[in-house]
Design a protein that fits this description.
Structural class: alpha/beta
Distance between the termini: 54 Å
Oligomer: single chain
Strand content: 15-25%
Helix content: 25-40%
Largest sheet: 7 strands, parallel
Number of strands: 14
CATH topology of the largest domain: Rossmann fold
Number of helices: 13
Shape: elongated
Radius of gyration: 21 Å
CATH architecture of the largest domain: 3-Layer(aba) Sandwich
CATH superfamily of the largest domain: Methylesterase CheB, C-terminal domain
Order of helices and strands: EHEHEHEHEHHHEHEHEEEEHEHEHEH
CATH class of the largest domain: Alpha Beta
């Protein structure tokens, strides 16, 4: 039984979270605190918890101050933020992730939603990932996708495209000259923090545009893109409908929307950002982004798969490799917050290079090159 500490000044929200967690046979709310100071006292006194569910806006010591204190004391607790959708809350959530929070779940606007299956499943999925337990729903999703991917690859092989040992397809040498290239990156759980070890280390003159799908709700990706832009030499922006792709620019998919690339001749590529239904519960969805690249005229597309639950991105990449020249970089298990998405693409035998988080930017730059 994994022990959970809940830190929230709202008695109502605490009760909702207690009920969700304590109905699960593998998790139990061991104790609670109404602010960060009381929570810190519990930890300093020797209390041990497998994970902490943390609110941000609290009296005496808020969630940000609590995380700062943990970092100062070298206390590596698994902290899951429960945050609001307000603009200021989004900014604070990004700050919390920088300070070491594992990930976040958006706090519902109403009691009815808080007691619904969506919030309950999101909270439990995140807690299971934080304490290194497997959720049956996620396991089934990954298994089914792996089965689908295997089928797709067999079909691919029947039509004469080699899946392994095709050195012409998977050349590890970066293209040069006037080659037209694109980088398409996917990440989820642990991604906002992981991206800070990748995007700021890309050169401003990278010889490609970069598309990123990070699973986040609406309102959070604007704050994340602004923060990454502040930290980076390369330009970073939240993708907007009608954006014309430019080399040396990173486009972060807008939370709550789906992002696709539309090709208008070989020389112009435009982003489509639309509010539509989620796929597999994801909006944005990396599979949708990768599928939109199928048949595009890029000389090569560098696909990067980083930390995250589930298998989003693998199905799209498998489809993409049937029509386009691609090179796939995956984050290694040790440096992944959750080794789900990188594992799925590795299990599909579609990876050219596996690297640790801190070497992903270098791997991208070496392969894509600079102008």
């Amino acid at each position: 039984m994994k022990k959970i500490l809940v830190v929230d000044d709202s008695a109502l929200m605490r009760r909702v979270i207690f009920d969700i967690i304590n109905k699960d046979r593998n998790l139990h709310v061991e104790k609670y605190a109404t602010n960060g100071l009381d929570a810190l006292d519990l930890l300093v006194s020797g209390e041990e918890f497998d994970a902490i569910v943390l609110d941000i806006n609290m009296p005496k010591m808020n969630g940000i101050e609590f995380l700062r204190e943990l970092k100062k004391r070298g206390m590596n607790e698994k902290v899951l933020i429960v945050s609001t959708l307000a603009k200021e809350g989004a900014k604070e959530t990004i700050q919390a992730l920088e300070l070491g929070a594992f990930d976040f779940v958006t706090k519902p606007d109403s009691l009815a939603i808080a007691k619904g299956n969506l919030f309950s499943n999101m909270l439990l999925d995140m807690l299971y990932a934080a304490v290194n337990l497997s959720r049956r729903t996620l396991d089934n999703e990954v298994k089914q996708q792996a089965k689908d991917h295997s089928s797709i690859r067999k079909t691919h092989n029947i039509y004469g495209k080699a899946l392994q040992g095709d050195t012409s397809k998977h050349s590890k040498k970066p293209l040069c000259g006037t080659a037209r290239k694109l980088v398409a990156l996917a990440c989820s759980t642990g991604g906002p923090k992981a991206l800070q070890y990748v995007v700021p280390f890309l050169p401003a003159n990278l010889d490609a545009a970069v598309l990123i799908v990070q699973h986040m709700p609406e309102g959070f990706t604007a704050s994340l893109s602004n923060r990454l832009d502040e930290l980076s030499r390369i330009k970073v922006k939240e993708a907007a409908h009608g954006d014309i792709l430019e080399k040396g620019t990173v486009y972060l998919a807008k939370g709550g929307s789906q992002m696709r690339l539309i090709e208008k001749g070989r020389m112009q590529h435009i982003l489509s950002v639309t509010a539509e239904e989620a796929r597999n519960g994801l909006r944005p969805c990396a599979d949708i982004m990768y599928e939109s690249l199928v048949g595009s005229s890029f000389d090569e597309i560098t696909c990067v798969v980083m930390t995250g639950m589930g298998a989003d991105g693998t199905k799209g990449i498998i489809q993409l490799e049937q029509k386009n020249k691609i090179y796939v970089i995956a984050q290694d298990e040790e440096s992944s917050t959750v080794y789900g998405m990188p594992k799925a693409i590795a299990d599909a035998k579609a990876v050219d290079e596996v690297v640790t988080l801190r070497k992903i930017a270098d791997a991208i730059t070496k392969h894509v090159g600079v102008r």
